[in-house]
Amino acid sequence: MMRTITKVVALFWLCLACTPGAGNRPAEQKNKPMLSKDAQKVRNYVKQEAVIAHRGSTYWAPEETEPAYRWARNIGADYLELDLQMTKDGFLVAFHDDDLTRTTNVATVFPERAQSPVKDFTLPELRSLDAGSWFTTRYPQRARDSFAGQPILTLQDVIMIAEGYRIKRLNGEPVKAMPGGEWTGLYEYEPDPADNGNRPGVYAETKVPGLEEALARELAELGWLITANPKVIKTTAGKVGIANTKGRFVLQSFIPESIEKLERLLPGLPKCLLLWYPAMQDSLEANYARAIAFAVRHNAHFIGPSIAGGPNNYGELSAPAMTAKIHAAGLYIHPYTFDTRAQLTAYKDRVEGVFTNRADLALQVYGRPGHKAAEILTGLGYE
Ligand code: G3P
Ligand code: CA
């Protein structure tokens, strides 16, 4: 994925200074960008100290699979984070990398297409892959037999998990939904018997440009578009209830053109401009200022910089001087990606939320209850 981002984002930073909008703005706005009052209202739809479950979790379960997202919901994360890509047949799926080699058995199932990008596969083809077994090999200390065979998920799957459902299974196999008689790759759902009442929001990253229209359509169809008669999702006192608020769906992207498009197609939804260290390091201060000005201009309410240290090791974009600049513009900060208690504690008081693979630790650091991470997986039926 970083190959795509490198090209798109680097090009953007080179061109940003000469975009017509930038030159035509009044001098005072150029000098001191500030999020508008209306945009600040939208920013405030998202709760403070937001625990954003990065790919569900990369630590406890195979990333962006059903175990990872059911775990994140039940542990009490505020948001389920996912990376959106579009299949050859037009479905939005949750998948991080450009290709399928790292986290699936594509090399066995489609050897001749193993290096092909996700967009070259149909949804039924993607559903035929095992997106769980690699985790068991890579992390034997956290392996569970039931991770084997976990399918790649759609955006709809993740939203349904947030609403308290799970994929319906018969003898362990997902039940295919075939309303038109032919299987398009969709599954049936059922109320999750292990659901504990949490209703998190969804925090979706456009990993590639060009899927924004489909995303807008699907959100409306699923009743998750807050600006178009969203459905009421039943919540329980004392449980996470973000799925039934105006902050239920947050948009994020490293790709500035995608942020612009999202603002055009989905105005009034919270948005986060992600920053990637390698694309900015040649002129950090100047690029930071440009990013903030861009975010303000296009109503990206949050900036998502990287933190120092693993797992990304991109270099520090969340230093105090940088976070102060973001706050001065009325923007809030959701940095990525937190894997340790020390990281979470160090940043806790100067950011408004965290992308974390360890929602269990983040909840502890924020003083919130319910953190038996491994037991939650067992309770969900993952032995
Ligand atoms: O979206 C926040 C964070 O997920 C960005 O990094 O590469 O894991 O998508 P990445
Ligand atoms: Ca992401």
What is the number of E strands? 14
**Level-2 CATH architecture:** Alpha-Beta Barrel
Question: Which ions, cofactors or small ligands are bound in this entry?
Answer: SN-glycerol-3-phosphate, calcium ion
Query: What is the CATH homology-level superfamily?
Result: Phosphatidylinositol (PI) phosphodiesterase
| Gyration radius over CA | 20 Å
Average pLDDT, rounded to a whole number, is: 93
Please indicate the count of domains: 1
How many helical stretches? 17
Low-confidence stretches: 17-25
Structural class: alpha/beta
**Proportion in helices:** 25-40%
Shape: globular
CATH class: Alpha Beta
State the gist of this model.
The chain is an alpha/beta fold. The chain has helices spanning 2-16, 20-24, 27-31, 37-43, 66-75, 106-109, 123-127, 133-138, 155-162, 212-221, 256-265, 277-280, 284-297, 320-328, 341-347, 359-365, 373-379; strands at 50-53, 79-86, 92-94, 153-154, 165-167, 169-170, 173-174, 189-191, 201-206, 249-253, 271-274, 302-304, 332-333, 353-356.
Secondary structure layout:
Blueprint: H1 2-16, H2 20-24, H3 27-31, H4 37-43, E1 50-53, H5 66-75, E2 79-86, E3 92-94, H6 106-109, H7 123-127, H8 133-138, E4 153-154, H9 155-162, E5 165-167, E6 169-170, E7 173-174, E8 189-191, E9 201-206, H10 212-221, E10 249-253, H11 256-265, E11 271-274, H12 277-280, H13 284-297, E12 302-304, H14 320-328, E13 332-333, H15 341-347, E14 353-356, H16 359-365, H17 373-379
Parallel strand pairs: 1-2, 1-14, 2-9, 9-10, 10-11, 11-12, 12-13
Antiparallel strand pairs: 2-3, 3-4, 5-8, 6-7
Helix pairs in contact: 5-9
This protein binds SN-glycerol-3-phosphate (G3P) and calcium ion.
